[in-house]
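tokens incoming
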């Protein structure tokens, strides 16, 4: 079993910054894809940024040049530095990991952390 523990959400004014972190814990696994998604009530969960284990990172167009994703494979940890935040960034942010355990791959989600950007 793998657990994803997130931290770093909160309330910030437009133009402000927040940093989210997520750590994967457990035993007998390796991480493949790790990333962040977000969801607002009534809408589908959407990709924010995801990275493969070899470092290829994809960002949503809406966050490019404002958000910076980083990953520490040795610690199974990812960070999302969010700058120049806008009200439309308000959402619950979820950490995601696709992990390998033996011959199998599994998807895991964190519990979510609220990010609120006030106008």
């Amino acid at each position: 079993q793998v657990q994803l523990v997130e931290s770093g959400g909160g309330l910030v004014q437009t133009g402000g910054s927040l940093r989210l972190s997520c750590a994967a814990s457990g035993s007998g696994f390796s991480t493949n894809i790790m990333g962040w998604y977000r969801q607002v009530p009534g809408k589908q969960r959407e990709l924010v940024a995801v990275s493969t284990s070899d470092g290829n990172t994809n960002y949503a167009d809406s966050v490019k040049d404002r958000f910076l994703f980083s990953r520490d494979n040795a610690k199974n940890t990812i960070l999302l530095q969010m700058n120049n935040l806008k009200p439309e960034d308000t959402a619950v942010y979820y950490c995601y990991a696709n992990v390998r355990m033996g011959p199998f791959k599994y998807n895991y989600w964190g519990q979510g952390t609220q990010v609120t950007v006030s106008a």
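note: The longest strand covers residues 91-101.
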